[in-house]
Amino acid sequence: MRWTVDSETGVLTDVLLCRPDHYHWLETNAVAVSTLASSAQFDRAAMLRQWDGLIAALDAAEVRAHYLTPSPAHPYQVYTRDSSQTTPWGPVLTQLALPQRRGEYARVLDFHLAADGFYRFAHQGVVEGGDIHIVRPGLLIIGHSGVRTNRAGAEQFAGWFAEQGWTTRLEEFPEHFLHLDVLFCMATDRLAVACIDVLGEDFARFLAAHEIDVIAASYPEVMAMSCNLLALGGNRVISPAHSVRINAELRAREVTVIDPPLDVFARGGGSIHCMTMPLRREPLP
User: Fold this and answer.
1) Per-domain residue ranges of the chain
2) Which end of the chain is more exposed for a tag (fewer CB within 10 A), N or C?
């Protein structure tokens, strides 16, 4: 397979994106509902500037960008993390939960069938990429709230990894938080940003048992999508500029932080991790 990923933190070489030609805020999650209920106004010009800043950050990190064809019917197609998932054995077509997003599968099919095709198709329950964390070779965590990913979808996906001898953990969390990557993301192979207040001490002990340190995020930081960062590999991350405290904590741990403004997307309920589907990472040592 051309596209393979065996971790969240190996050096990122290729990523799948979708240009925000039709992006606007939709009431698809608690963050977006709160935004739309407020006095905030969607600023398309600011959104496009922030998109350009994201592309510049990926270019500076020498990541090759590949693009889905934007669909006018699917404004949240820009959050490419959800509609597919690259695994060590090739891409998986996930099963999206919301009616507003289900049609996104068509452009994902077009992209991958023009290349090498798929390793698997998810077809039990629902499972979305924002809940899937291929932490490192041999270790997989999948979140499930019962809404965007449910237990049946998580179990099917985890089963493919368990068959290959991987340790898998299914992590239940409240549906208020949309996806696990709102609460938890890997920054380096031994460092995560996570909201332990929500995920709990058992989750913290699990990470510690696998020698993963944690920068703890607060509830307000979670709802600002400040856990939602993209590891580039080589102790580098892209993290939103508004994640000021967390970015400072990362830098204090000698992580290089590229921090473009992304608040327009964050107020829609997604950020850099949601907007990027890694197609290829260099294998971790």
Assistant:
1) 12-281
2) C
